[in-house]
Each structure stands twice: as structure tokens, then as C-alpha cells.
TrEMBL record:
Taxonomic lineage of the native organism: Eukaryota, Viridiplantae, Streptophyta, Embryophyta, Tracheophyta
Species in which this protein is naturally found: Cannabis sativa
UniProt xrefs under InterPro entries: PEBP, PEBP-like_sf, YbhB_YbcL/LppC-like
Name assigned to this protein: Uncharacterized protein
CDD domains: PEBP_bact_arch
Chain spans, region Disordered: 1-38
A Pfam family reported for this protein in Swiss-Prot or TrEMBL: PBP
Length: 144
């Protein structure tokens, strides 16, 4: 039954999968580099933590080939949470006790947290949001 499927959605990203400008490096007025709000449903039984990886799968590498670019890594999300609010990145310590164990890893910009992608206006980029249900916590190592 499709309604019982483990799934990830964002109420702010359209069905066409277009990423609104406020979630990009260019931004929308004063708002830019915001992490999008995410919701998930039907966490598999026995899940101890969730991990999220977001990639721009159409990002060009300077040497030419198209190589996915990691935009955001989030680990140790408690399975009791039902999502992450808009603008969560960089504020995990301020988001409240429920989010205390959540950690953000380094992206391909070599920075922790969400780094809004640079998307040329003429090019359409696809973004892949992958949520993993894990049977343990993830050890991201020391933050520099």
C-alpha cells in the first residue's frame, strides 16, 4: 500500500522538483541559503536514527564531467522526529531538545550544514534528497 511507504517530502518544493530561490546561494531578497523544510512518513520499525544526504546531481565539475555535488549531510536524526523545519541548518543547537542529537556533516564546499547551490538561470538542476533509516547512530568525527 503506497500510503505505508517510507517517504520524504518537502511542502515547499513543487511537484516539478524545482528548488525555490531562497534555498539557493543567490537567494530571494534577504532570504538565502535556507535549508528547506522536510517531512517524512512511515519510518521502518527498529530504526535507531535517520540520516539525510542532499545532492545536486547535475553539478558540473571544473574538469567537465557531471558529478553529483553534496549540498547537505545530516545524521543522528531521532526517529521520533517527523521532519526538519525550514532554516534548520546551522541552528541544530537552537532548535530545541528534540534536535539535540542531530549533527550536520561537511558538504562538498568543505563546510558543515546546508550550502545553497549555485544554479545558473538557464540550466535546470535536479536535486536528490535521500533519507536513510539506520539501525545505529553515525559517527561523523570531530568538527573543525
Amino acid at each position: 500500500m503506497a500510503s505505508e511507504e517510507f517517504r520524504l517530502v518537502s511542502p515547499k518544493i513543487s511537484n516539478e522538483g524545482k528548488l525555490p530561490r531562497k534555498y539557493t546561494e543567490e537567494g530571494q531578497g534577504a532570504q538565502k541559503n535556507l535549508s528547506p523544510p522536510l517531512e517524512w512518513y512511515n519510518i521502518p520499525q527498529g530504526t535507531k536514527s535517520l540520516a539525510l544526504v542532499v545532492q545536486d546531481i547535475d553539478a558540473p565539475e571544473p574538469s567537465d564531467p557531471i558529478v553529483p555535488w553534496v549540498v547537505w549531510v545530516v545524521a543522528n536524526i531521532p526517529p521520533t522526529l517527523k521532519g526538519l523545519p525550514e532554516g534548520f541548518s546551522g541552528k541544530e543547537g537552537e532548535a530545541g531538545e528534540d534536535y539535540a542529537s542531530v549533527q550536520e556533516g561537511y558538504n562538498d564546499s568543505k563546510l558543515p550544514g546546508w550550502r545553497g547551490p549555485k544554479v545558473p538561470h538557464s540550466d535546470a538542476h535536479r536535486f536528490e534528497f535521500k533519507l536513510y533509516a539506520l539501525d545505529d547512530l553515525v559517527h561523523l568525527g570531530n568538527k573543525i
